Structures are given as structure tokens and as C-alpha cells.
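C-alpha cells as discussed.
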């Protein structure tokens, strides 16, 4: 695990650091670099769909390419995180440059309409090679901002992530409209190369703990019980949130709306998440309870808000409950990330963040599969299924964390 030192004039940070964080040059440099590096992930699903249509006119081909990309990214995250942990910021730069080159190669292959059997391995490489980058950036953050600011920093980062997911489809569409279906993949390559360039603005690797001289980390290993619990609940979050969103096109006609409005509801969820992340980041220092308990309560509450979407009587009710649930998404992401940072030993954090990132992606895939199976029963069941799983696991997690903090053992 690499650690770095970013010089700051703030020696004694206030509890939240919200105002100071906005004036911290290191935070903005990190945000620009990390945001650029993660943007291609949000661009990939739509970009692959357009690429498939460019090759043979079939959106199904694009879905195959997108599935191959997502699966490879999830499986490659831990492996990539391990390599980046050993190489430091140089590892980030190499992974981003290689990913950008592979994206250009895939775009060229799409442009000349190579057979799908050759495109799929390229899509796998585009997903796998830079897969450890998001975890690597998150492991850098405790070395850039003081420890007392981390709650705000992680929450605001989760909010900024929502902006990326809102902007990514527009970027892909603009590239495709201006040029053709291969341009969406080429745009991913451009952004990856830009991210590699922005890593030059990050501090050099140094053998110092973190930004205010106190190591941020625990004593647990990568596959310790607290870490695995974090991964499992991150999986649950990905399953519940993505499953509900995927089910919306089938659900909306049952609510008197059009399937095409699903994008508006999904955007509402993301916009609410952005607001929730910004608010939580500014106010989190006033809240009580451990990080684990807060995260588990937010997880259960997210399931509680998403479940009524399946039983909404009209479109407005569905939109309202989605917005309420969305307020919790970015804070929950930030809490899970901060909890993992304070659980894992510093030499395993890059790998741990990569595993967490991968499990959320696998959870999203599992949520889509659950929706596909339950659609045979009915659209409301397809929406309720992932939300119910999320709520159940959230309640179990709350009960477990409360037992732990009371010093009790299960069964007593």
C-alpha cells in the first residue's frame, strides 16, 4: 500500500472541515483526477450499446459487450488494486494509460466492424485493466486531507460521483450524435488519458502516514470479518438500488406512466443522492453513533424507502419515495467507504476499496438478474424483490451492529 504526504497549512482541523475542504487545493486536484478516472465506468454501458449497434445494427450485441466489460471490471478490481498498491501513483498512471489505449483499440475495431467474437475480448480488457483505479484513488484520500475531514470528503466524493453518472450518458450521446457509434468508446479513451494526465497534479509517493500525521486505518486484514461484512452490505446496496432502477421501465406502465420515463425517475434518484451527500458531508459531525451503526441504519432506511415504489398507486408516489431513498445513497456510500478505511490496515486499503467497488458492481448485476426472474410474475414483484432483500439485510446489519456496540453476543 502506498502512502503519501500532501502539505497543508491546516494543522488543527475542525470537526467537519466543510469550509476548509472547499479551499483545500489537494482535495480539488484529487477530485478532478478521481472523477475523470471513474467517468468512463459510467459511460461504458451506454457506449457499448451504441458500439454494438454500429457493428451489426443489434443492441443485443452492445448488451453482450457491456456485460463482458462489467463482469471483467468486477473480477479485475481486487487484482488491479493489488498491483496499484505496490506501484503507487505510477501504477494509477500506467493503468489509466493502458485502459485508454485499449479503449481506442476497441473503438477502432468497432469502426471497421470486426466480428463480435473479437470485440468481446477487447471489451473484457477495457474493463479489467483499469479496474483497480477507483480503489487506488480512494486509498489516496486519507493522505491528502486531514483525518477529521474524511467524513465530509468521502460523502462529498459520493455526491460528485452522482454528477458523473448523470453526465456520462450525455457525453456518450453527444459523441455518437457528432460522429458514430464507435465514438462513445473513443470518448472513454480520451477521458482515461485525461485522468492519467491529472495524476501528475497529485503529490509524490512518500513514506509518511497521512495529511495530519495520524494513520487512518485499523488492524484488520482484507478478508477479516468486519471487512467481509462491509463487502456483503455493499453488495446488498448495489443489488437493491440498481435492481429497483432496472425494474422501472416495466413498472411504470402499471402506474399509468410511460416506460420511457424511467430515465427521469433514475435521474431524480441521482439528483436526490447528490443533495443528500452534500448535506450529510456538511452536517455529519453533529451526528452520533459509530460509522458502522450509521451505515447500517442508512442501508435499512434505503430499503424501507425503495420498497413502497413497487406498491405506489401512481407515478408521483413512486417519484416521491425514490427521491427520499435517493437522499441516503451518497451518504451511505461515503459511510461505507470511511468505515472500510478505518477497518483495514493501511497496506490493504487499496485492495479493500477495489473489492468493495467490485462487490457493489456484482450486486448491481445480481439485482438485474432478480428483476429478470421476477418479471415473469409481474412488474411490481420485480421492483419489490431487490428492495425487500436490501431491507432485510439492512435490518439484520442494524441488529448485529447494535448487539456489537452493547457488548452482547448473538443469542444472548
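Sequence:
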Amino acid at each position: 500500500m502506498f502512502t503519501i504526504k500532501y502539505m497543508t497549512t491546516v494543522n488543527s482541523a475542525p470537526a467537519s472541515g466543510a469550509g476548509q475542504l472547499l479551499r483545500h487545493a489537494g482535495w480539488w486536484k484529487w477530485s478532478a483526477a478521481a472523477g475523470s478516472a471513474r467517468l468512463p465506468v459510467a459511460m461504458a454501458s451506454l457506449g457499448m450499446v451504441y458500439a454494438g449497434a454500429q457493428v451489426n445494427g443489434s443492441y443485443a450485441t452492445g448488451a453482450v459487450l457491456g456485460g463482458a466489460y462489467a463482469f471483467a471490471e468486477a473480477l479485475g478490481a481486487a487484482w488491479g488494486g493489488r498491483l496499484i498498491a505496490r506501484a503507487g501513483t505510477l501504477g494509477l498512471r500506467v493503468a489509466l494509460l493502458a485502459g485508454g489505449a485499449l479503449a481506442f483499440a476497441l473503438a477502432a475495431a468497432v469502426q471497421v466492424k470486426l466480428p463480435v467474437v473479437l470485440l468481446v475480448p477487447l471489451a473484457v480488457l477495457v474493463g479489467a485493466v483499469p479496474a483497480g483505479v477507483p480503489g487506488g484513488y480512494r486509498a489516496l484520500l486519507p493522505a491528502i486531507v486531514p483525518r477529521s475531514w474524511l467524513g465530509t470528503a468521502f460523502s462529498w466524493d459520493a455526491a460528485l460521483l452522482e454528477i458523473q453518472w448523470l453526465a456520462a450518458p450525455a457525453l456518450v450521446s453527444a459523441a455518437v450524435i457528432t460522429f458514430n457509434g464507435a465514438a462513445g468508446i473513443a470518448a472513454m479513451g480520451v477521458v482515461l488519458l485525461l485522468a492519467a494526465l491529472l495524476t501528475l497534479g497529485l503529490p509524490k509517493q512518500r513514506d509518511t502516514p497521512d495529511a495530519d500525521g495520524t494513520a487512518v486505518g485499523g488492524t484488520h486484514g482484507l478478508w477479516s470479518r468486519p471487512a467481509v461484512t462491509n463487502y456483503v452490505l455493499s453488495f446488498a446496496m448495489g443489488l437493491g438500488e440498481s435492481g429497483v432502477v432496472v425494474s422501472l421501465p416495466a413498472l411504470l406502465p402499471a402506474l399509468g406512466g410511460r416506460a420511457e420515463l424511467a430515465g427521469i425517475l433514475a435521474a431524480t434518484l441521482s439528483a436526490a443522492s447528490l443533495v443528500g451527500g452534500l448535506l450529510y458531508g456538511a452536517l455529519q459531525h453533529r451526528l452520533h453513533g459509530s460509522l458502522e451503526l450509521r451505515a447500517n441504519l442508512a442501508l435499512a432506511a434505503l430499503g424501507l424507502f425503495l420498497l413502497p415504489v413497487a406498491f405506489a398507486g401512481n407515478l408521483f408516489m413512486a417519484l416521491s419515495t425514490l427521491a427520499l431513498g435517493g437522499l441516503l445513497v451518497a451518504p451511505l456510500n461515503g459511510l461505507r467507504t470511511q468505515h472500510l478505511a478505518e477497518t483495514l490496515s493501511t497496506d490493504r486499503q487499496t485492495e479493500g476499496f477495489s473489492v468493495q467497488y467490485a462487490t457493489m458492481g456484482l450486486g448491481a448485476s445480481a439485482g438485474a438478474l432478480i428483476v429478470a426472474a421476477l418479471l415473469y410474475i409481474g412488474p411490481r414483484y420485480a421492483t419489490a424483490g431487490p428492495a425487500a432483500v436490501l431491507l432485510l439485510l439492512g435490518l439484520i446489519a442494524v441488529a448485529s451492529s447494535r448487539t456489537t456496540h452493547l457488548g452482547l453476543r448473538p443469542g444472548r
